[in-house]
Amino acid sequence: GGPSISIFLKPPGTIPPGGATTVCCSCECDNGKFVLFRSGHRVNTLPRLLGGGRAEFSISNVSEWDAGGYNCHYVDGDTVLARSEPVEVRVHEFRLPEPVLSVLPGHQVVAGADVVFRCTLARPRAGCSLYLEGWGAEFQHLSNGEDYKLSGVHKGYEGRYSCQCFVKNASLEWSPVSKTLDLMVR
Fold first, then answer.
1. Domain boundary assignment for the chain
2. Which of 117 and 3 is assigned the larger pLDDT?
3. In what residue span(s) does the Ig-like domain sit (predicted)?
């Protein structure tokens, strides 16, 4: 029932204290407005409206208080016309080096080809998340240095990929997000 809202973070993943992220929401809706919620409470941040039913909420200078599940509501007065799934904002210091994301055979591939992603961190035994901008959650979970093969790619896999790694010690330690990599499918 009703329209659905898609939601994602830009940049994705875990952010450091003092860092920033943008919650991006889109909806094939009209006559209403977007409101951002965190853990069920309204966040007093006004969206930047991009037209075409898209809005961006900037969250900057974050602290641990800003962590939690965010979702977008599309409202008309007091009536909620649609709400998104939650997207998780995690806030942690970065203690690990930046990982490197690579793709084979390259940034441009022909539709139907296989591509292999690899996220490499200068630490053993790390887990990594592969992100594709526009996805609400991680695109794929990887082990450090592991090949992830995507078979028979099509236009739907085009976009901006990045990865981020973590090591479970006494606590979770995080890396920054890698440099982004644009995949084009011809």
1. 5-91, 100-185
2. 117
3. 3-88
Structure tokens at 145: 């240095």
For residue range 93-130, list pLDDT tens digits in order.
999 999 999 999 999 999 999 999 999 999 888 999 99
CATH number of 100-185: 2.60.40.10
- Which amino acid, one-letter code, is at 114? D
Instruction: Kindly give, in sequence order, each residue whose CB lies less than 8 Å from that of residue 117, ignoring residues fewer than 6 positions away.
Output: 101, 102, 103, 130, 140, 142, 147, 148, 150, 161, 163
CB-count burial class (<10 Å; 0-12, 13-18, 19+) for 174: buried
The dihedral formed by the CA atoms of 116, 122, 126 and 130, expressed in degrees to the nearest 10: -40
Quote the CA–CA distance of 77 and 174 in Å, as a whole number: 41
- Amino acid identity of residue 95, one-letter, is R
The Cα–Cα gap between 147 and 163 comes to 13
CA distance 37 to 44: 9
Question: 5-91 with 100-185: one CATH topology?
Answer: yes
Contacts of 46 (CB under 8 A, 6+ apart): 57
